């Protein structure tokens, strides 16, 4: 303290040394102190910019989390009511929750959000809206506020650079979280990591854009207020001005290499370099930020999310330890360049989930995702066959394809990581379930169908009506394999494997609860039967069928009847032959009858309880259906128009789950 001429005490001015980075600016200068105290957002309050972004993202997550919680709670309630009413035949029946105003609003919102701007658009309107909102907030926050630059270079860093830099740093934990397989965001929102990966890439691009906005003012300011020599001298004055170049180079590669054409060019190389560049980026950011303001808080958060997810995957998702005890992968060649991998494992998975498989003896570091095409039928702790079916592309899948042709009897030790993904909603909580697939999109639907069939048999499902619409290229007579590739005698048609699996599941479901329709796109169009045919007994080897009207679509399924269990197909066929002999048909002459009479269609009445097939002999008209009857049509399914017509027979709550190219819907 000092005194004036009157003897009064005058407080001594103590400068605030934390107003700026003392390594870059003269924090003891009274003019700098005064300027930093006057401006609205001084450098020392830069953490507020980061907090604004955090609150914005957390608000979106809370909204999606509440919506997901409501859906889960509604599904659980509907299943509880259905199970209670079925198991308590004599007691009071509980009322099924009705459709609220909220349900109607969300239904229309989903219908709008699932649309796409054009046929070539890769993301939906809903996803586009979310991305635009994510870009709009930081861009408006950074550019609407003033000033962009300090009064002079000595007064502090450009405020524009500070705002952009802190928001970019605050994005790092969210970018890392959205890119992880064991995903915290998926846990909250119910959206699988494979769908969140779109946001991971777009948020990374936004972070790269903000990094450019952060760097440009530091390049412009010295030149505008001086010369190019001043820019050079400034960058040479302190390491903090140029150590960010390395971090930006890593970020630039992460953004550019994530573009679709580059990813497709060499996916394995992209994955390995992507991880390496990501680790290098976060490491260099620790050096560049130098614990200024709250920057390290976000970097430590990103590092913690990354390490935590990896540890969780290693100990709770990967069968790394079990693989040493002899978990083996067996390859089966399929025609039409298909490959089937079968792995007996105690791993449990749900319908529609996928796993990452690594086979070190084939490729040490490659970790490829595949959708599981089978169901975990046996109880927990017992071995189930995990089946993966795919067509080879490049790298790992091409090597597996070659081995399946040259040495199909060999087996390889496999490391499984997963399962991941799947649906957050329970399909069995819907009265009607429509499964639409195009080509290989049928793979996850097989698991969903099996899970639905199991729940229906156990009377643990609300579902009464299941429909499958599958668009395929051929009836099953795929193009022949090239002559230079040898196929073993036990090779299976890729299409036949899926068709037979659907038929096997269909035979365990209640009568008239499942409708399967195949649309064939690359066969010569001819008229097809206007009634279901057996997928195992009457499947056409060629498209030669009688001249009948096109196949109609069932409007509504009949009431459920008893479950048809067929444990032994051979025993069933023997019973069929015995029934035919009892009815007076000559079993030995059936083939001759087929040649003479098989092309004549026989009359079918609407109320007839026996499903007949014009492809089979008329003697087969007396045989009962075995539950695997399907409908056949040529061309693409008229989905857009037909769904409106079919909806007249849907239940109160219907789920339409599709895995097909968007152009299929546009053309329908």
What labels describe this entry?
668 residues; alpha/beta; six-stranded mixed β-sheet; 20 helices
What topology emerges from the helices and strands here?
Blueprint: E1 2-3, E2 9-10, H1 30-38, H2 47-87, H3 101-113, H4 125-144, H5 159-179, H6 184-189, H7 193-225, H8 228-237, H9 244-257, H10 260-265, H11 267-289, H12 295-317, H13 320-323, E3 328-335, E4 338-345, E5 353-358, E6 368-371, E7 384-390, H14 396-406, E8 411-413, E9 415-421, E10 432-438, H15 442-457, E11 465-472, E12 492-493, H16 494-506, E13 514-520, E14 533-534, H17 569-582, H18 590-597, E15 629-634, H19 639-646, E16 654-659, H20 662-667
Helix pairs in contact: 2-5, 4-5, 4-7, 5-7, 5-12, 7-8, 7-9, 9-11, 11-12, 15-16
How is this structure best described in words?
The structure is a single chain. This protein has 668 residues and is α/β, with parallel strands linked by helices. Helices cover 45% and strands 13% of the residues. It contains 20 helices and 16 strands. It has helices at 30-38, 47-87, 101-113, 125-144, 159-179, 184-189, 193-225, 228-237, 244-257, 260-265, 267-289, 295-317, 320-323, 396-406, 442-457, 494-506, 569-582, 590-597, 639-646, 662-667, and strands spanning 2-3, 9-10, 328-335, 338-345, 353-358, 368-371, 384-390, 411-413, 415-421, 432-438, 465-472, 492-493, 514-520, 533-534, 629-634, 654-659. The strands form 4 sheets. The protein has a 6-stranded mixed beta sheet, covered by helices on one side. The longest helix is centred in the N-terminal third of the chain and has 41 residues, at 47-87. The protein is elongated. The N and C termini lie far apart (86 Å). Mean pLDDT is 76; it is low at 477-492, 542-567 and 583-624.
């Amino acid at each position: 303290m000092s005194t004036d001429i009157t003897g009064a005490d005058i407080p001594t001015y103590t400068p605030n040394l934390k107003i700026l980075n003392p390594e870059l600016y003269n924090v003891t200068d009274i003019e700098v102190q005064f300027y930093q105290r006057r401006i609205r957002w001084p450098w020392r309050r830069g953490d507020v910019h980061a907090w604004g972004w955090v609150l914005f993202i957390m608000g979106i997550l809370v909204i999606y989390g509440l919506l997901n919680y409501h859906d889960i709670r509604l599904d659980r309630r509907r299943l509880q009511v259905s199970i209670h009413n079925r198991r308590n035949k004599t007691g009071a029946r509980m009322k099924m929750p009705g459709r609220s105003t909220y349900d109607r609003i969300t239904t229309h919102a989903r219908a709008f959000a699932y649309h796409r701007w054009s046929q070539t658009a890769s993301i939906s309107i809903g996803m586009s809206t979310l991305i635009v909102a994510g870009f709009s907030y930081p861009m408006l926050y950074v550019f609407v506020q003033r000033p962009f630059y300090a009064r002079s270079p000595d007064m502090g860093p450009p405020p524009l650079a500070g705002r952009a830099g802190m928001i970019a740093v605050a994005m790092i934990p969210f970018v890392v979280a959205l890119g992880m397989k064991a995903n915290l965001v998926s846990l909250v929102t119910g959206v699988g990591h494979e769908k969140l990966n779109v946001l991971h890439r777009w948020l990374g691009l936004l972070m790269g854009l903000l990094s450019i906005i952060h760097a440009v003012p530091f390049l412009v300011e010295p030149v505008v207020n001086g010369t190019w020599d001043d820019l050079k001298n400034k960058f040479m004055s302190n390491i903090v001005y140029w150590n960010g170049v390395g971090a930006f180079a890593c970020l630039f590669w992460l953004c550019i290499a994530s573009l679709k054409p580059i990813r497709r060019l060499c996916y394995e190389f992209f994955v390995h370099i992507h991880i390496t560049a990501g680790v290098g980026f976060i490491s260099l950011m620790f050096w560049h930020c130098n614990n200024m303001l709250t920057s390290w808080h976000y970097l430590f958060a990103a590092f913690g999310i990354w390490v935590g997810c990896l540890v969780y995957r290693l100990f709770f998702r990967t069968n790394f330890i079990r693989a040493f005890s002899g978990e083996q992968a067996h390859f089966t060649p399929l025609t039409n360049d298909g490959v089937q991998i079968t792995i007996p494992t105690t791993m449990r998975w749900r319908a529609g989930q996928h796993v990452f498989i690594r086979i070190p003896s084939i490729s040490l570091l490659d970790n490829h995702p595949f959708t599981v095409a089978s169901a975990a039928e046996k109880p927990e702790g017992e071995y189930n066959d995990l089946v993966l079916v795919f067509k080879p592309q490049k790298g790992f899948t091409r090597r597996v394809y070659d081995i399946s042709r040259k040495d199909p009897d060999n087996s390889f030790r496999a490391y499984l990581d997963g399962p991941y993904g799947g649906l957050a909603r329970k399909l069995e909580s819907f009265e009607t379930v429509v499964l639409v697939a195009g080509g290989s999109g049928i793979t996850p639907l097989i698991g969903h169908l099996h899970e639905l069939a199991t729940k229906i048999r156990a009377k643990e499902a609300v579902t009464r009506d299941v429909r499958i619409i599958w668009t395929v290229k051929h009836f099953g007579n795929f193009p022949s394999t090239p002559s230079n590739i040898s196929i073993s005698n036990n090779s299976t048609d890729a299409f036949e494997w899926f068709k037979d699996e659907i038929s096997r599941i269909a035979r365990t479901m209640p009568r008239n609860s499942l409708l399967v329709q195949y649309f064939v796109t690359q066969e010569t169009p001819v008229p097809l039967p206007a009634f279901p045919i057996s997928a195992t007994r009457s499947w056409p080897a060629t498209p030669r069928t009688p001249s009948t009207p096109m196949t109609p679509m069932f409007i509504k399924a009949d009431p459920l009847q008893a479950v048809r269990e067929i444990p032994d197909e051979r025993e069933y066929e023997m019973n069929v032959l015995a029934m035919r002999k009892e009815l007076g048909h000559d079993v030995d002459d059936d083939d001759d009858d087929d040649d003479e009479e098989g092309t004549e269609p026989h009359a079918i009445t609407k109320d007839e309880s026996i499903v007949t097939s014009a492809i089979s002999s008329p003697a087969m008209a007396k045989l009962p259906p075995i539950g695997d009857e399907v409908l056949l049509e040529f061309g693409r399914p008229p989905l857009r128009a037909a769904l409106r017509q079919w909806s007249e027979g849907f239940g109160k709550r219907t789920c339409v789950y599709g895995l097909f190219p968007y152009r299929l819907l546009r053309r329908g």
